[in-house]
Amino acid sequence: MAKKPSLKTARKRLTEKRQELLAIVESSKESRKPVELDQSRVGRLSRMDALQDQAMALETERRREIEIRRIDAALARVESGDYGYCLTCGEDIEPKRLELDPATPVCIDCAR
User: Fold this and answer.
1) What b/e sequence results for 76-100 when a residue is b if at least 16 CB atoms lie within 10 Å of its CB, and e otherwise?
2) What are the start-end ranges of the E strands in the chain?
3) Residues 42-83: pLDDT tens digits?
């Protein structure tokens, strides 16, 4: 069995990923602004494209927020000493699984 990542390494990776996501959230604010529906300045197809782009940006933002919450929960587990253990069954989470997704809360068996 592979070696479990250290709490220091896990905390560093989670914190870096969180900061990266927050930077993306900040830089993408413009794409989530309400679409201007002034028909005298913007054509119907352009408005439809803008609405679709806005909807996609909002969904992407929703997914980023979920990932940030997952990271925050994993950081809380690091602090409490529960990091690396499945929240469902309590067994160790495979180190390779944690390496791929350090915020994962469950082992592969429970994820199925």
Assistant:
1) ebbeeeebbbbeeeeeebbeebbee
2) none
3) 566 777 787 888 888 889 999 999 999 999 999 999 999 999
Assigned token pair, 96: 């390779």
- In this structure, what are the phi and psi dihedrals at residue 7, rounded to the nearest 5 degrees? -65, -35
Token pair of 52, please?
């679709």
Which of 53, 55, 65, 52 minimizes the C-alpha distance to 24? 65
- The residues, any chain, with a CB within 8 Å of residue 89's CB and separated by 6 or more, are 106, 107, 109, 110
How many C-beta atoms lie closer than 10 Å to residue 26's C-beta? Answer: 8
